[in-house]
């Protein structure tokens, strides 16, 4: 569809239909008939927004039914369905689950990241989805942030290079552009400086107050979204409150930085992404100084759409508009006038549509702003060939969760490993003799995958097709090598030749991962000590979304590996442990010695060196 065609279509649209295009609804909150009746522009699955049973076929049916709803609307404008495929198509049972981005950052391999994105796109296409809320191009400056794992690095240049590689992998199929039925629209997120927020700026210590801070907001979001799967989630979040695990402190907080720093550290990935075909950008839930990004007309409209010439569309983040003002009408007005084009409502779309309608009728939102937003959305839909009927063509792509796809993930895992310590213990011989494996994560693929896997916060103990580390060790060793596993590290009185101990961060997503204390819990420290006394050579493996404070434990190991959150293909770890591939990963974040070296600015100001600097990694 050409530009004049889009203008003609715009001319035929009623205000209600225009606002429908600007509305993105969470899939539990709307039916295909309602999509048809209201000309809704987009539907999404949030983390864990899965059909039952959770299979590629049911996904295809679910997405297809919403798409057909849109085609039945008066003007038949096609729908865009979006999901968070942030380490593979991670909501879907049986998908290839890649390492989280921090691990991909350690590979420093842009071509690999492009291939990872292509596989992810193929699995999205296999389920009918053509819009991925990725890549995040956050540049975290404080590893206590619960989204550090979603970022490639604390270094702007590396984030830029790998973010662009991922975007191209999604959107580009042999240079044919977005209209290729195997192309997936990316969403570069979260604009801007989401990684530059300050500790405590989102917690109860701030003027957001004890209840309205993200605790209050979050509780609302959960209770509404999860009505249908209430039991499971109430237990989960109840437990978090009880144990004090819950506590948003920095996620969605305030970046109190100068414009110069914002432009130097956080803006470059967006400039590069736009130059490389970014057509959608997601706005950050955080604030810059005293203004929420969703209200920031200067950064959204003047800088991004004006100065940087971005003519794709901006989507808001989950519930973000709601936080702009206590009065919802005012909140909607502020967000749309600031430059948000499509609103991830996600639940009460009638209230959103009604408020925006009233705002336009009252002249609080100019009609030109609405036309601009809709034109941007329709332009991208046209570029994707949606008006010509280009749909995700599952026949055009390689198999979902296939061996070929898993081979790319296994390669990514092996290349993501950072060898922190090695006194000659690695590589291990496959004829190792007696091998003890300890730590629940060694046999828990849910912990190996981390958050954003099947459910928003992951599924510890859950069933995820793939290979856990224990399985991979059993597969790798020669006949005659005895492998014994005990989660708690209780073995008989033999001394093992090799001990492998895995410690992991519990899975989290977003604010649930904000953590003040990055030291290991006492159980993990005891487990390491117990293992030390039961084996001649002790190898430590960390499953983590960020550097942890392990200065006092590091010397207990003969070799220590940061494996990040590797995903479904644990054999990538044994490939390196047993010397089939070299350890080549390099730290994407500096590894602090103690909490006085957090955040990054404190480390840079400290006269002591970090435990290991960014870029460090032994090669054997
Ligand atoms: C997150 C986004 C995500 C969206 C949809 C938000 O809470 O910040 O990264 O794309 O939810 O799940
Ligand atoms: C959803 C996520 C979303 C989050 C925001 C969760 O319930 O599943 O997609 O990002 O809420 O708070």
Classify the helix fraction into a percent range: 25-40%
CATH architecture of the largest domain: Alpha-Beta Barrel
The name of the CATH superfamily of the largest domain reads Glycoside hydrolase, family 3, N-terminal domain
Approximate shape: globular
Low-confidence stretches: 206-238, 241-245
- CATH class (first level) name of the largest domain: Alpha Beta
Structural class call reads alpha/beta
Sheet-strand content, in percent, reads: 5-15%
Strand segment tally: 18
Mean pLDDT across residues: 93
The molecules bound to the chains, other than polymers, are: beta-D-glucopyranose
Distance between the termini: 54 Å
CATH topology tier name of the largest domain:
TIM Barrel
- Radius of gyration using CA atoms only: 24 Å
Domains (count): 2
Q: Largest sheet, described in full?
A: 6 strands, parallel
Number of helices: 22
Strand order of the largest sheet: 5-4-3-2-1-12
Overview of this protein structure:
With 620 residues, the chain is of the alpha/beta class. The protein has two domains: 378 residues, Glycoside hydrolase, family 3, N-terminal domain (TIM Barrel), CATH 3.20.20.300; 199 residues, Glycoside hydrolase family 3 C-terminal domain (Rossmann fold), CATH 3.40.50.1700. Strands 5-4-3-2-1-12 form a six-stranded parallel sheet. A six-stranded mixed sheet has the order 13-18-17-16-14-15, sandwiched between helices. Strands 6-8-11 form a three-stranded parallel sheet. Helix 4 links the parallel strand 2 and strand 3. Helix 3 packs parallel to helix 4. The radius of gyration is 24 Å and the shape is globular. Bound molecules: beta-D-glucopyranose (2 copies). The site of one beta-D-glucopyranose has 9 residues, from loops.
């Amino acid at each position: 569809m050409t530009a004049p065609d889009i203008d003609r279509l715009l001319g035929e649209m009623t205000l209600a239909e225009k606002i429908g295009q600007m509305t993105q609804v969470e899939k539990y909150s709307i039916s295909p008939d309602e999509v048809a009746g209201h000309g809704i522009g987009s539907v999404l699955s949030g983390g864990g927004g899965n059909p039952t049973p959770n299979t590629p076929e049911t996904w295809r049916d679910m997405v297809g039914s919403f798409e057909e709803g849109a085609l039945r609307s008066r003007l038949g404008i096609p729908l865009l369905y979006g999901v968070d495929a942030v380490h593979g198509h991670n909501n879907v049972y049986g998908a290839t689950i890649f390492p989280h981005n921090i691990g991909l950052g350690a590979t420093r391999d842009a071509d690999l990241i492009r291939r990872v994105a292509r596989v992810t796109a193929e699995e999205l296409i296999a389920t009918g989805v053509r819009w991925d809320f990725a890549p995040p191009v956050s540049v975290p400056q404080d590893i206590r942030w619960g989204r550090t794992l979603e970022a490639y690095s604390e270094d702007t240049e590396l984030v830029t290079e790998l973010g662009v590689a991922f975007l191209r992998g999604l959107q580009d199929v042999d240079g044919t552009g977005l209209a290729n039925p195997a192309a997936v629209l990316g969403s570069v997120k979260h604009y801007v400086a989401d990684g530059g927020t300050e500790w405590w700026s989102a917690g109860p210590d701030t003027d957001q107050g004890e209840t309205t801070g993200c605790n209050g907001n979050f509780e609302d979001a959960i209770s509404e979204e999860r009505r249908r799967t209430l039991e499971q989630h109430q237990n989960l979040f109840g437990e978090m409150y009880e144990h004090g695990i819950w506590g948003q402190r920095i996620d969605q907080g305030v970046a109190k930085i100068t414009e110069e720093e914002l432009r130097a550290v956080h803006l470059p990935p967006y400039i590069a992404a736009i130059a490389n075909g970014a057509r959608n950008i997601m706005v950050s839930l955080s604030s810059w100084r005293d203004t929420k990004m969703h209200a920031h007309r200067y950064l959204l409209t003047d800088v991004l759409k004006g100065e940087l010439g971005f003519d794709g569309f901006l989507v808001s983040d989950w519930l973000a508009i709601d936080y702009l003002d206590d009065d919802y009408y005012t909140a909607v007005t502020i967000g749309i006038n600031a430059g948000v084009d499509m609103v991830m409502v996600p639940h009460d779309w009638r209230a959103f549509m009604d408020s925006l309608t009233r705002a336009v009728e009252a002249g609080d939102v100019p009609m030109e702003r609405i036309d601009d937003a809709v034109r941007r959305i329709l332009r991208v839909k046209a570029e994707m060939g949606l008006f010509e009927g280009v749909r995700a063509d599952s026949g055009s792509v390689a198999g979902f969760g296939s061996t070929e796809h898993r081979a790319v993930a296994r390669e990514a895992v092996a290349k993501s490993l950072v060898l922190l310590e090695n006194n000659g213990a690695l590589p291990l011989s496959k004829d190792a003799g007696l091998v003890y494996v300890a730590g629940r994560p060694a046999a828990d693929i849910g912990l190996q995958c981390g958050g954003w896997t099947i459910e928003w916060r992951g599924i510890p103990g859950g069933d995820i097709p793939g290979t856990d580390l224990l399985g991979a060790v059993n597969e790798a060793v020669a006949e005659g090598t005895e492998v014994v596993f005990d989660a708690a590290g209780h073995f008989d009185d033999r001394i093992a030749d090799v001990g492998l101990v895995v410690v992991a961060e519990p899975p989290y997503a977003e604010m649930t991962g904000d953590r003040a204390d990055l030291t290991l819990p006492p159980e993990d420290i005891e487990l390491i000590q117990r293992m030390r006394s039961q084996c001649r050579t002790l190898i430590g493996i960390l499953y983590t979304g960020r550097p942890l404070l392990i200065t006092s434990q590091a010397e207990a190991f003969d070799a220590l590996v940061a494996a990040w959150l590797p995903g479904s293909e644990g054999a990538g770890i044994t490939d390196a442990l047993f010397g089939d591939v070299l350890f080549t990963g390099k730290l994407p974040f500096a590894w602090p010695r103690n909490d006085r070296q957090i955040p990054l600015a404190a480390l840079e100001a400290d006269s002591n060196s970090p435990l290991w600097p960014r870029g460090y990694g032994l090669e054997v």
